[in-house]
Specification:
The complex is a heterodimer of chains A (about 120) and B (about 850).
Chain A (H helix, E strand, L loop, with lengths): L8 H4 L2 H13 L5 H12 L5 H14 L2 E5 L12 E5 L1 H19 L3 H5 L4
Antiparallel strand pairs in A: 1-2
Helix pairs in contact in A: 2-3
Chain B lengths: L1 H10 L4 H10 L2 H22 L1 H44 L1 H29 L11 E8 L10 E2 L2 H8 L3 E9 L3 E5 L2 E5 L2 E4 L3 H4 L4 E4 L10 E5 H8 L8 E4 L3 E9 L12 E4 L2 H4 L10 E9 L5 H8 L2 H5 L5 E7 L21 H28 L1 H13 L4 H38 L12 H25 L4 H5 L7 H37 L9 E5 L2 H5 L1 H9 L4 E7 L9 E3 L2 E3 L10 E5 L4 H5 L3 E4 L9 H4 E5 H7 L8 E4 L2 E9 L14 E4 L7 E6 L4 H15 L8 E2 H6 L3 H35 L1 H9 L4 H35 L10 H27 L3 H6 L2
Parallel strand pairs in B: 6-11, 8-10, 18-23, 20-22
Antiparallel strand pairs in B: 1-12, 1-13, 2-12, 3-6, 3-12, 4-5, 4-9, 7-10, 8-11, 9-10, 14-24, 14-25, 15-24, 16-18, 17-21, 19-22, 20-23, 21-22
Classes of the chains: A mainly alpha (about 120), B alpha+beta (about 850).
Chain lengths: ~120, ~850
């Protein structure tokens, strides 16, 4: 399944994916379900449900942008372990490529054009 | 913080139901982190804004997560399912022989089960198609202290009287079984005997569906008749039968006022014509007065009345009509007539069955299915080493035991549903044959009754679960460590279990073999038992028409024929119909307090000679003693014993007001079916109610004799068509029910044994395969082929011998119970057991011999290179 995504990561990195990847990078070692949810909710201003965040995360994991592992169980989680996510090299590349492309596009835009946009 | 958290944890709990939903629905991959997240945040919210809002939040989260969870759930399940299916198919393909044995065994087992269940369903469905079937019942009378079974017949005025006396009885009707009629329409003439006489209220109670005519008024007219569709077709073809006139016995014309749909086979009343009850009066029957037990009485109870209570109420009714009698009435619910009738004079009983057979066949169905399931279990566990690595790998990559259990249950269910498909094919294919054997009209009615498809799928499901139960538990218990380290050897544990199952399987088969043998023996015994008279070459004819009027002349004429040895007549056919019965008896030396009811038969001169009966004392009726005709009485031995008379000859014997003298004692003979003990019997000539003529003929020139009798019949009885029968076939008909059961029993036993052998064959295949190398080495070291065959067979022999030991007492218990049905029965002989056991051993050895001989005669060079 992973093969299918080779070479066209760029095209398919949605803005949701970007937000999630960035959130995971910001959270460093603490990137697990609850924290990711809070971070993403804060950034997008939208209240994500716990179940909903795993869907894009697993999808990216399958595409090889992320990896995850189960931490040791802790007591405040009722003896359950966390699934901790890490951005992989491929994910970072995709993010950077994405950012570069955007930056490149932004450079060509004049402020006057922005001001003259129809309301 | 930590301390606070623990106190919160003690008090607050996440909502149970929501948590349960997530637990159930989540895939194992994301279950743990998701639940952990939820729990962690729940307690966080608890400490921030309190438990209430935390709970609300939790529920909210669960609901929001549902779409995601469900899609994941489905995704994972289908993914795993695809994998399981693929593996299952590969296994089926790789082991075609085993798969064939498994599937065919299950298919045959299920097909048997389905056929038997259809049969049982049909047996239970008797008489349930009437709208009021729950409220209908038949009135039966028990004569207390008579030692007789209750009578199915009652007196004619009873129905009206009951209806008037008891408000709980809404409607009541009486009917009588018809006699033989010669029915004519135009050129078409047929003899008809399937008919009943019934009053106009008959169709108010029994809702036989009408094709034409009005059930309300159909029988109102005295000259009306209701016929079935089949009969209408026979007489009128495509013409409209309504209003047409049918001629009966060249005397009476009856107008067709209604046409019924053909009577379903699951009705205890079977008839082609319903004749008006009042007509019986013209035929010389008393239908107004008490005293003549000749009618069947049916009642329709009020909606909420209980049969038991109404039975209780009417119980003593006959005593109010004629005091000083010991009768007790009770109501037999309509639905019970077919399976629970054990009555005297029940002419309707010819179609009846017995609830015991339901039980017997249900057990056979279960046995057969169980045997097929055992095959599956044995072959699957025996070959478990082949799957052990797969299970271990699954566990290593994260499957827990539940997943493996699910996988193997799924596999067995798949097997059973595939087999179920074949089973349905078998059922469709064999239903016509089965219908013929069982004399039924069964079909797989998928649309009519919701329980049929539900039951069928239930069988498939049950089979799948039963046959998957042990394999899935056993296979899922493998420890990956052991298996992968190769310290694991395929199931010493499961081989014990397997032995038990094979033993169980063979025990069941042996029980069935013994069962069939005992049933066979008993029926042979019945057929060959000395009845006290000679039933061979004894021909009978109904004494009707001109032959009845000129009986004496006819008799003399016949006796002149050299092939006819003797001729007599009687009121009854032996073992059939109704003897008269009376309790108004008196004799010399009778203890006045004693009450005995005896049955009686009217006979003619030469009765004992023609039947070949032996006189125990005194003499038979003879023309040399003119008083015999009016006052001679002959009793059977049983009667004399009950009366306690030492020297009965010449003693006075009176019945009601009639005075007679005992002239002889006849040796006991079976005047009823062998289900009954011989009861006291009176034979007299005075009644002279002679309905049948009996002719003892020579065994040579039989067809000439019959031709002669036919000519005679046509001379005296031109209005009737020739009718005769032989006593031995007639007596054989008494046991048709048992014969039917015997055929079915034989077939199912055969199938059960066949399925057992199929399993044993598979098992022997596997076990010899396991020992290929051992056999090779033994041969190299000098073992001979017979020695190796013996060695391999010994194991199986042991199992079958143990099975015998288990089966014998069980079979004895059940067959002894079955034999209790008969007053005259064979002993269960020890050789039956020995023979059945030996048969099982031989069958088992033959089954495994193919494999053992093949294994023993392979070239050791090949077998040692094996693998």
């Amino acid at each position: 399944m992973v093969d299918k995504w080779k070479g066209d990561i760029m095209k398919l990195l949605s803005s949701h994916d970007e937000v999630f990847l960035l959130a995971i990078l910001r959270l460093e070692d603490n990137a697990y379900g609850m924290n990711i949810r809070r971070e993403v909710s804060k950034a997008t201003g939208k209240n994500w449900s716990i179940g909903a965040i795993y869907d894009p995360l697993y999808r990216m994991e399958k595409r090889g942008l992320l990896e995850s592992y189960l931490s040791d169980p802790t007591s405040e989680r009722g003896g359950r372990s966390k699934r901790i996510f890490k951005v992989k090299k491929k994910g970072l590349d995709a993010l950077l490529e994405h950012k570069e492309a955007r930056d490149r596009l932004w450079q060509g835009i004049k402020i006057t054009t922005l001001e003259s946009l129809p309301r | 913080m930590d301390k606070r958290l623990t106190t919160i944890k003690k008090n607050a709990k996440p909502p149970v139901i929501s948590r349960w939903i997530i637990k159930k629905i989540q895939s194992p991959y994301s279950k743990t982190p998701l639940l952990g997240d939820l729990e962690e945040e729940f307690y966080a919210i608890c400490s921030e804004t309190g438990e209430k809002s935390a709970r609300r939040w939790y529920r909210c989260q669960v609901i929001k997560s549902l779409p995601f969870s469900i899609s994941h759930f489905v995704y994972w399940r289908t993914e795993m399912f695809q994998n399981h299916l693929k593996i299952a198919f590969r296994n089926v393909w790789r082991n075609k022989a085993y798969s064939f044995i498994n599937i065919s065994g299950l298919a045959i087992g299920m097909a048997c089960c389905i056929l038997i269940l259809l049969w049982i369903q049909d047996e239970l469905s008797f008489d349930r198609f009437h709208r009021y079937s729950n409220r209908l019942g038949r009135v039966v009378v028990e004569v207390e202290h008579s030692g007789q079974r209750p009578w199915a017949v009652t007196e004619a005025p009873l129905s009206q009287a009951l209806k008037e006396t008891y408000p709980e009885i809404v409607q009541a009707t009486r009917l009588q079984l018809g006699r033989r009629f010669r029915v004519k329409y135009g050129e078409k003439r047929f003899d008809e005997r399937q008919n009943i006489f019934a009053g106009p209220d008959f169709f108010e109670m029994f809702t036989f569906p009408f094709v034409k005519g009005d059930p309300q008024t159909a029988l109102n007219e005295k000259r009306s008749v209701v016929i079935t569709e089949k009969t209408a077709q026979k007489y009128f073809g495509s013409e409209d039968p309504l209003g047409k006139k049918l001629n009966f016995n060249d005397r009476l014309d009856l107008q067709v006022t209604g046409v019924l749909k053909d009577i379903p086979k699951n009705s205890h009343l079977q008839f082609d014509f319903v004749l008006p009850f009042n007509w019986l009066e013209d035929l010389g029957q008393d239908i107004h007065n008490w005293g003549n037990f000749n009618f069947f009485t049916y009642v329709l109870l009020e909606k909420n009345a209980s049969v038991a209570e109404v039975s209780q109420k009417i119980s003593g009714y006959l005593r109010t009509v004629t005091p000083d009698n010991d009768t007790r009435l009770f109501i037999q619910p309509l639905g019970r007539i077919h399976l629970y009738s054990d009555f005297e004079y029940d002419a309707l009983a010819v179609n009846n069955s017995d609830c015991k057979y339901i039980f017997i066949f249900a057990s056979i169905a279960l046995f057969v299915l169980f045997i097929a399931c055992i095959n599956f279990i044995n072959l699957t566990t025996a070959r478990s080493s082949n799957r052990a690595k797969e299970v271990a790998m699954r566990k290593v990559v994260g499957a827990d035991r539940k997943d493996v259990i699910r996988q193997f249950f799924g596999e067995s269910l798949a097997f059973s549903f595939v087999a179920f498909g074949f089973a349905l094919g078998i059922v469709f294919l064999f239903l016509p044959v089965f219908n013929k054997l069982s004399d039924k009209n069964l079909f797989l009615d998928m649309t009519g009754n919701i329980w049929v498809p539900v039951g069928l799928i239930g069988i498939a499901f049950f089979t799948g679960l039963l046959s998957g139960s042990y394999p899935s538990l056993y296979l899922s218990s493998f420890q990956p460590g052991d298996v992968l380290k190769r310290t694991f050897t395929a199931g010493p544990k499961s081989s014990h279990y397997r032995k038990v199952l094979v033993v169980a399987q063979f025990s069941l088969s042996i029980i069935l073999i013994i069962g069939t043998t005992v049933v066979d023996n008993q029926l042979d015994y019945i057929r060959n038992r000395k009845l006290g008279f000679n039933k061979e070459n004894l021909l009978y004819m109904p004494l009707v028409g001109g032959m009845r009027q000129q009986y004496e002349a006819v008799k003399n004429e016949w006796l002149r024929n050299e092939n006819i040895m003797s001729v007599t007549a009687s009121s009854n056919l032996p073992s059939f119909g109704r003897n008269w019965a009376t309790g108004a008896l008196d004799w010399e030396g009778k203890d006045p307090s004693e009450r005995i009811i005896m049955q009686g038969v009217d006979v003619d001169y030469d009765f004992f000679e023609t039947f070949g009966m032996q006189m125990k004392a005194g003499r038979g009726f003879s023309r040399d003693f003119p008083t015999d005709e009016n006052s001679g009485v002959i009793l059977n031995e049983t009667a004399i014993n009950i009366m306690g008379l030492r020297s009965p000859i010449g003693k006075r014997f009176s019945i009601g007001g009639w005075q007679g003298t005992i002239v002889g004692v006849v040796q006991d003979y079976n005047f009823k079916s062998l289900h009954n003990k011989i009861e006291p019997l009176i034979l007299a000539m005075a009644g002279r109610q002679l309905n049948f003529v009996f002719v003892r003929i020579k065994s040579q020139n039989m067809s000439d004799t019959i031709k002669f009798l036919k000519g005679q019949w046509e001379r005296y009885n031109p209005q009737f068509s020739f009718e005769y029968g032989f006593a031995d076939t007639l007596l054989g008909n008494l046991y048709t029910n048992e014969e039917k059961v015997r055929t079915l029993f034989n077939y199912f036993t055969f199938l059960a044994i066949f399925i057992s052998c199929l399993g044993l064959f598979g098992l022997s295949f596997y076990l010899t395969e396991q020992r290929t190398k051992e056999i090779g080495i033994r041969k190299v070291l000098g073992a001979s082929v017979p020695k190796i065959v013996t060695m391999l067979s010994k194991e199986f022999l042991k199992w079958v011998l143990i099975a015998n030991i288990i089966a014998w007492p069980v079979a004895y218990y059940f067959m002894d119970k079955w034999l209790q049905n008969f007053a005259y029965k064979t002993d269960i002989k020890i050789w039956t057991f020995l023979l059945s056991g030996a048969l099982a051993v031989i069958i088992a050895l033959l089954t495994v011999s193919y494999q053992t001989i093949k294994a023993a005669s392979t070239n050791p060079a090949d077998s040692l290179r094996y693998e």
